[in-house]
Amino acid sequence: MKKSEAKKRIEELNELLSRASEAYYNEDREIMSNFEYDKLYDELKALEDEYDIHLSNSLTQNVGFKAAEFLPKVRHEKPMLSLDKTKDRETLKDFLLDREGVLSYKLDGLTIVLTYKDGKLISGVTRGNGEIGEDVTNNIPAFTNVPLKISYKGHLVLRGEAIITYSDFNKINEEIGIGLEKYKNPRNLCSGSVRQLDPNVTKKRNVKLIAFSLVEIGTDKKTKEEKKINETYESQLAFLDDLGFTTVTHKKVTKDNILDTIEWYAEDVKTNDYPSDGLVLMFNDIKYGMTLGTTSKFPRNAIAFKWQDETAETILRDIEWSPSRTGLINPVAIFDTVELEGTNVSRASLHNISIMEELKLGIGDTIKVFKANMIIPQVEENVTKSNSFKIPNKCPVCGSKTVIKNNDGVKTLFCENELCPIKHIKSFENFVSRNCMNIEGISIATIETFIEKGFIHEYADLYKLEKNKDEITKLEGFGEKSYENIINAVNKSRDTECYRVINSLGILGIGTANAKLLAKHFEDDFDKLMSSSANDLQDIDEIGPVLAKSIEDYFKDKKNRKVVDDLLKEVNIKKTKKSDNLKLSGMSFVITGSLNNYENRDALIKVIEDNGGKSATSVSKNTTYLINNDLTSNSTKNKKAKELNIPIIDESGFEKLIN
Questions:
Q1: What CATH number has the domain bearing residue 254?
Q2: Are residues 453 and 356 in the same domain?
Q3: How many CA atoms lie within 13 A of 567 on its CB side?
């Protein structure tokens, strides 16, 4: 068996055995007998030992994960320069001249430098700023496909891109409940996953490594074989592939076939599962490339090609108006189906009336659409500009009269009917969401069914579903197991924090941050909150007259009070433990950019609030610190902080404040 065939079989066996283990241990079912499992396991181990290929996700490795306390900074032995970029295909052809090159995908993830010694992985470091990265060695064994041991026993350094495939990214987002915040794109999710302190988080997200460059092999006194490997870029990638690494898709090119090859990639990327934001062209002759040296910014042996934003022209067929729980009615463009980034797209949010007016939309117009960040469909341009769109004067759900509101120059459409059915459905969707009562497993379809059947009228009814057991278990798509899962999730939410209950009520203008502010001010006492006047509420920092009146009006309404009183009978509000040493008391923080030491922003916000601080979403004169791991970023928040002389700190600086 060739080594490439052995590697493929090892990957197949790992996938098959992993599925069998998942089914047996987590799903209480068998997809193969113990005899078959043992036979395949023995075959896997024999192949790994014979061909010296030991992947990080192999069941024979029994990798135990241990969380790190922090991610140390590490200086790269060789600085990693960025590549010069172009969007012009002819520029690539001119760059190549009469030389042979290798064209490969420019993967859109997080660059990692791996070092091996004596055939064993000894370190993994992120690219960072090109000179200093972060040591993520602890997390590398949690990747799905990194060889932990290799057959080559000399000194080896390589670069690869940590990525999360589109299919895995979509699966992760699908597992997040309806109404909860989804991850924005695979790149950001991957970056946060690799830089976790707990490798178990990394493992859950199916991070893969695609090798794209051999940096060093052997010592100064290279063997004949090592010299041969280092002759061409193509031979370097073949060597890495032979060691068990998954290497980047690459093709040899000359000036005669490079344009056709670019076109091949342009078609392939539409269905490719790996996130890519372009291509990389490198001279195949390593020695020649090294003689070219570098400019002050870029190496001269390679150039990056960035994809043009893929746009498509189509016809606007309709504008759909979608009401929300607050009464806001959102416009959505419906157009002839077009293919963008490998998927069929036929609708895109128009956001508000002001944007529609800027685009001068009308039914039948020719419009151009694209995918922002290759994910979110947007209308880029209106070619026709008929400006004939009609704003509905009635709510599409309940038929009540609509009103146009103007907030700081932004026009939006509202339905003011308090009994609008969609508001009822959306209010329950908000109630069960992650930052509210966090009741897992109740979808908007389930909510609609329960409302339609008369099982739920107000929030407290969710906690009385046991009386509807016989009817629920007989519903199509339900059963004993589904019913039990819902009841368990509902009961789990009974013991909860005060801010969750406040946030779940859907009070106009109250989100998670303000709900926490109110809970803290009233010391988790709901009665004090409900009996407070607008004047009392304005004494709270960041609660202005409009928000104060909104809160007062909500609790003065008899229907709302009944809903709240009934709910409070079903839940147990846990009192927040007080601390005498609130190190961040009086401080306000704004968070931006990706995080390294926290799973998400909610986790960091919790630490801030547990230590007496507050979290805000925008930088203002009241901000104490802006937290951003990229201190040199030119983001809007960084610029605003600098204008206001507000200190910008990274996570290390924040941790010094609380430690």
A1: 3.30.470.30
A2: no
A3: 26
Query: For the chain, how many residues are written?
Result: 659
Which of the listed residues 547, 574, 601 is the one where a domain comes to its end?
A: 574
Q: Give the type of residue at 589.
A: F
Same domain, 469 and 348: no
Alpha helices in 195-285 (DSSP H): 199-204, 224-229, 233-243, 258-268
The stretch 311-317 carries a mean pLDDT of 92
Catalytic, out of 7, 106, 203, 426? 106
Tokens representing residue 307 in the block: 């994809």
pLDDT(177) > 70: no
pLDDT per residue as tens digits for the range 524-559? 999 999 999 999 898 886 788 888 998 999 999 999
pTM over 0.85: no
DSSP string, 86-155: ES-HHHHHHHHTTS-EEEEEEE-SEEEEEEEETTEEEEEEE-TTSSEEEB-GGGGGGSSS-EEE-S--S-
| pLDDT computed for residue 539 by the predictor | 83
Asked whether residue 610 is domain-assigned, the answer is yes
For the chain, give the percent of residues with pLDDT over 90. 34
Choose the final residue of a domain: 306, 332, 354: 306
How is the chain split among helix, strand and coil, in percent rounded to 5?
A: 35, 25, 40
106 an active-site residue? yes
What CATH number did the domain enclosing 527 receive?
1.10.150.20
Domain hosting 83: range is 70-306
> 214-254 pLDDT, tens per residue?
998 988 788 888 999 989 999 999 999 989 899 999 999 99
Confidence of residue 25 (pLDDT cuts 50, 70, 90): very low
CATH number assigned to the domain comprising residue 631: 3.40.50.10190
pLDDT at residue 131 tops 80: no
Residues 165 and 297 in one domain: yes
Query: What is the C-alpha to C-alpha distance for residues 309 and 89, in angstroms, rounded to an integer?
Result: 14
With respect to residue 521, please indicate whether it lies within any of the assigned structural domains. yes
DSSP for 286-325 reads HHHHHHT-B-SS-BSSEEEEEPPP-EEEEEEEEEEEEE-T
Please report, for residues 321, 335, 536, 572, the alpha-carbon distance to residue 350 in angstroms, rounded to integers and kept in the order given: 10, 12, 39, 41
- Residue 317 or 267, more confident: 317
- Regarding whether 271 and 135 lie in a shared domain, the answer is yes
